[in-house]
Amino acid sequence: MVPAAASLRVNLYRVPVRGPYAFTDALASLIGENVEALVLVDDGMLIANAQEFAGMASAQRLTSIGFTEFARGGGLLGYGVNFLVMFSRAAILIDRILKGAKPGDIPIEQATKFEMIVNLRTAKALGLDIPPSLLARADEVIEW
Hints:
The chain is of the alpha/beta class. The protein has one domain: Response regulator (Rossmann fold), CATH 3.40.50. The chain has helices at residues 2-7, 23-32, 44-48, 50-59, 68-72, 83-98, 120-126, 132-137, and strands at 37-39, 63-66, 77-81, 114-119, 140-142. Strands 1-2-3-4-5 form a five-stranded mixed beta sheet. Strand 2 (63-66), helix 5 and strand 3 (77-81) form a beta-alpha-beta unit. The longest helix is centred in the middle third of the chain and has 16 residues, at 83-98. The chain is globular and about 55 Å long. The mean pLDDT is 89.
């Protein structure tokens, strides 16, 4: 990630957030650095608090991308695996194991279905125009 950022002349700031109580301080430290965009990684704590964090990022007028629930919670853009497909596939594999298959004999699988969600309500609040080509590729467009 660092070499790609350097080639784009973008500074990266990593801000660890250990719990919901740290959201305000984390965002304040970014605002203090004049950060204009926010990228969230898939993290159980962040996913569980997606709506709260997205609201705070929007209030600070930060362009943001994260996991799909982040966009549904108010973030600008979400991209990630389709968990329903993954859990369904996991259930099939567990069934095979419970019926006697050896776990070591079952091939490792990678996600093949990813979703992109664009939150137009957030885009409008930030004064951003989302290109029609991006909207056409989105799996979900939130307009409410």
